[in-house]
Amino acid sequence: MGEGDRIAIPSVVDVVVDELRALILAGTFGPGERLIEERICERFGISRPPLREALRVLQREGLVSSRPRRGYSVISLSDDDVREIYSLRGALERLAAELAVPVADENALSPLEEAIGAMRTAASDGDDSAMLAANVAFHSAFVALADHSRLQQSYELLRSQLQLCMAQNLRFRQHRTGDPWDVVRRHESLLERVRGGDVQEVVAELAEHGDRSFLRQEQ
Amino acid sequence: MGEGDRIAIPSVVDVVVDELRALILAGTFGPGERLIEERICERFGISRPPLREALRVLQREGLVSSRPRRGYSVISLSDDDVREIYSLRGALERLAAELAVPVADENALSPLEEAIGAMRTAASDGDDSAMLAANVAFHSAFVALADHSRLQQSYELLRSQLQLCMAQNLRFRQHRTGDPWDVVRRHESLLERVRGGDVQEVVAELAEHGDRSFLRQEQ
DNA sequence: CTATTGGCTTTTGTAGACAATAGTCTTACA
DNA sequence: TGTAAGACTATTGTCTACAAAAGCCAATAG
């Protein structure tokens, strides 16, 4: 026995963390909104202890903040916060490139190809939401190439914060998508450089890549 | 009223997080050791809910791991983990350098000077423990120059994991300190480059700095 | 009419108890 | 004697309940 097919039985806390995060990222709970424990408990049909553990986790993830004896509330990101997120993200992607390139086996790149395929479909359909999802998928897959669990974890954290920012930017006019096909082209170019195997070129491409979709004010 | 001198009354959870982390980093709880909730509650004189919240936080920090229905235990770091930590730390320090250099006001560098002063004292006294503390203080102060809260937070996380690793390396023979004065010299050199204001030079110095004290096996 | 104080409500922080599960030891059977 | 099934113990997962603190509203005094 013990062939690695052990099923994972999630605890209530795990489920609540995912559910709450989804609700926050979807904008169901707006920026700065207070999260009254009892309300949420009633909503989810659970008791407070697991909810409180879940809130602690989300606090650590940077999605909610807690003031002692004043409870939890959804954070609202300032422009400085967004700049922090982008600069850190850039540093992480650069490390990912340095560790991943040159890529050992070609098969590892298939998730990137698939993401680009999804981008093309989205660009044809004019589906901005799908475009965004594919973009995120590409970058996550790119970081995954580095095979570095801590790097990936840190990256996912920033990703969710960016997603939160997007949810809070109700006025993200087509999330500043100039030309969707330009986005596709940039990612194709990046993948090409990855295939090329020259770390310097990939890093340079990343630096120029400059995907600042979520930034409210330029520079 | 309201002059910003509001005192912070920490919750039990906050205190427990700090205390538990200290105990783990001090090696009181060894690698892989199970953390029985009731024992710790009795030890601290608290009840289980706040302890559980604290354990969730430490899990997020990467100091303990939890297996469903099998409770929490102190993580034990593999060599690969240590390599991950070092590579990520390097990327974060590079970002810090790029953001901080050139330094606007000279006064910001005084923590670095103080840390080097402490290093000199420690080197004279042959106090390896103080040497290590000063080393950590220098790097933390360096990262703080970037004025980037998320960067600093990520860095502190890695720092505590490194500290955990050190606690677990009971056989860290003088933590591989070749010559303490060499360490002092390297940090002096780094500070000089920071003063110089050339980002490239600082980054290059950092890359060469290569402080791999905690690594068990070279490469 | 305004400011301050007192009580009241809402919400969080903590405690204790119960139920369920995993690990372990014993015992019975092959 | 070895193996497997069962019960038992220890520990976690969850819930209900109580106590304490913060914010709000009204009432009263200046």
Automatic annotation (TrEMBL), chains A, B:
InterPro entries: GntR_C, TF_FadR/GntR_C, Tscrpt_reg_HTH_GntR, WH-like_DNA-bd_sf, WH_DNA-bd_sf. Keywords: DNA-binding, Transcription, Transcription regulation. It comes from the Bacteria. Pfam families: FCD, GntR. Residues 10-77 form the HTH gntR-type domain. GO terms for molecular function: DNA binding; DNA-binding transcription factor activity. PROSITE patterns: HTH_GNTR (PS50949). This is DNA-binding GntR family transcriptional regulator. It comes from Halosaccharopolyspora lacisalsi. The lineage of its organism: Bacteria, Bacillati, Actinomycetota, Actinomycetes, Pseudonocardiales.
